[in-house]
Amino acid sequence: MTLQHVLFLVFGAVALGAAIGMVTARRVFHAALWMLLSFFGVAGLYVLLEAPFFAAAQLFVYMGAIGILIIFAIMLTRGMMRQRLPRVNDQWWFAGLLAAVLLGVLAWLIWQGPWPVSAAAVPEGSLHRLGTVLVDPEGYALPFEVASVLLVMSLIGAVTIVRER
Amino acid sequence: MEFLSRLLTFLSDALVNIGAWFHGLLVGWGLGEPWLTLITGGIGALILAFFPLTVVVFMIWAYRKIAARMQGRLGPNSSGTWAGPYGILQTFADAIKMLVKEDVRPRGVDLVPYNLAPILVVFASMVLWAVVPFGPAVIGTDLSIGIFYVLAFSSAALIVFLMAGWSSNNKYAAVGAFRAVAQLIGYEIPQLLAVLAVVMVAGSLRMQDIVAQQDVAFLFQLPMTALIFFLASMAEINARPFELLEAESELVCGYFIEYGGMKFGMFYLAEFMNSTAVAAIFATLFLGGWRGPWVDQAPILGTVWFLLKMGLMIFLWMLIQITLPRLRIDQMLAFNWKFLVPLALANLCLVGLVNKGITEAFPGGVSAWTRAGLLLVANIVLFLATWAVVAAHERKAQQRRLAWEQAQVEGAEVSA
Asked: Mutating which of B127, B128, B144 best tests the A interface, going by the most A Cβ atoms within 10 A?
């Protein structure tokens, strides 16, 4: 067992444990904090995969942006701050069913696919390649631009909604 | 003589040589791979973590002395008891006082987030030092994502303010946390866009590459970018005139109102550590980092230049902090969203176009000075355009004000 294995187990345990903590927390704020810890665990896994850009993006986007947004939403919702909520509501059976189906599909996929593993090291300059591919018309320029347009639209929409009339 | 020359050779790159000597010592003890990396890495991390703490202790002292001198007060040397020459021991006394204070815990706090927040806030400002280049070969780890790592951690650290504000079970703390996050998220955008302009010209996120690209310091190539970054980071580190996270006299300290003793001290410490970190990053991005004369002959000088540049930025920060009054929160947010963000976007477009244009116009490559000159011209144009827009806006506002006053006077006459 190398250091990498140990770290993988640690980060995996953090991500999964925090996910369990999230769904069992009785306060919504605690659930949000658990979720952020889970994101952090996933960022650690990215680091182990030698994908530092994704790890930083995970911190930046999921913890820095989405996490804050979710906590804002919780805090601006009346009555969600203090009270302890039941862990499940009356739709639990449907959610459980969906989760079970998803688990089954994912497990089947993992079971099915041959997962080619290369012992070669991660090539140098992968960050540079990522940048090139994102703006290359042969690469992913179109999805990248579509995502940008979507974000600009939501930005303009937000401004329009809150504008004083 | 021979000893002297050997000593000089050793000293000329002292930090690297000490590291190599220590590494050799461990190898000599017969340590094998995972342990070797763990021990040297761990010691390096400890040094990096203690460096900002050491700087902060003296920075707090210097801040109090300079502030006292500038505001016509006596500094910490006159607190009644002897505190070393020029009061230099005052900070240590304060730290010990904070450590031995009673740990007051208000009723109804949410224990785990409440206690975790002060730890995480210091952690978040310590980890930034891992990628700061102190010299040609002195850097914690030269990550390929360098500056993005810094931005990611400072963005994720915002959660801590919400944790502290929410778990304190205090309305003022919760509102303070909202105010803090509104300010910090807002000013993160121009900061990010300024860094992006630097990254476009440098062509890399790696800190050492950014330093290597600065044959002409980016301050002279991209002065507008430097200005935007400076203003935005002043707000990020909560310095006056943007000091609205704390504002103890008007806004009861905001999100950390319920913290006392060393827990309060941790927030205070993190604030000063963030200012040193921002000074270090500004020095790296815009002042050429460790670059300076004679660094090739004696790499240790690089560290000296870097620390001098960092000290200069800290001093500049202190000057502004000491002399300016606070803005109101609405003025502050308006300044960000209506001025700094549009300016940063315009700056980003301009820098991108000019930089790409230079590369396209001179296929055979172009000297650093030509590129710097063209970028500087573009920046001056942007500055004049900004000036014109602001002046026109101000004229209009003035006219509106006059018209309004006129209407008031006429209204008064009618009613009389």
From this structure: B144
Listed residue (B168, B144, B130, B193) closest to B348, CA to CA: B193
Alpha helices by DSSP H, B157-222:
158-167, 171-202, 207-212, 218-221
Question: How far from B75 is each of B186, B249, B317, CA to CA, in Å?
Answer: 35, 20, 19
Q: Which amino acid type is present at position B2?
A: E
**CA pair distance B384, A146, nearest whole angstrom:** 35
Cβ B157 vs Cβ A60: under 8 Å: no
How far, in whole angstroms, is CA B248 from its chain's centroid?
22
Q: Which of residues 148-167 of B touch A (CB under 8 A)?
A: 148-149, 151-153, 155-156, 158-159, 162-163, 166
CB B318 within 8 A of CB B63: yes
* Interatomic CA distance for residues B62 and B227, integer angstroms: 25
Confidence at residue B249, expressed as pLDDT on a 0 to 100 scale = 63
> Which range in B9-23, B85-99, B228-242 is most confidently predicted, on average pLDDT?
B228-242
CATH placement of domain A1-87: 1.20.120.1200
| pTM reported for the whole predicted model | 0.88
Distances (CA, A) of A12 to A128, A144, B69, B73: 28, 30, 54, 56
Return mean pLDDT, chain B.
85
Asked whether the beta carbons of residue A75 and residue B166 sit closer than 8 angstroms, the reply is yes
Provide the sign of the torsion angle of the four alpha carbons B246, B177, B60, B327, taken in this order. negative
Rounded Cα distance, A149 and B208, in Å:
34
B202 in contact with A at a CB cutoff of 8 Å?
Answer: no
Dist. CA B270–CA B231, nearest whole Å:
19
Burial call A78-105: b when 16+ CB within 10 Å, e when fewer: eeeeeeeeeeeeeeeeeeeeeeeeeeee
Report how far apart the first and last C-alpha atoms of chain B are (Å, whole number). 97
- Main-chain dihedrals φ then ψ at residue B133, nearest 5 degrees: -80, 115
Angle between helices B171-202 and B261-286 (to 10 degrees): 20
A68 Cβ under 8 Å from any chain B Cβ: yes
Where exactly are the structural domains of chain A?
Answer: 1-87, 124-165
Place of tokens 């224990």: B111
Which tens digits make up the pLDDT trace of B108-166? 888 888 889 999 999 988 888 989 998 888 888 888 888 999 999 888 888 888 888 88
Residue A36: closest CA among A53, A24, A21 = A21
Mean pLDDT within B162-184: 84
At residue B365, the 3 state secondary structure works out as coil
- Where does the pLDDT of residue B372 fall: very low under 50, low under 70, confident under 90, or very high at 90 and above? confident
CB atoms under 10 Å from CB of B74, counted, come to 11
pLDDT tens per residue, range B378-395: 899 999 999 999 999 989
Mean of pLDDT values over B207-212: 90
Whole-number CA gyration radius for chain B: 25
CA distances from B331 to B243, B335, B344 (A): 12, 6, 18
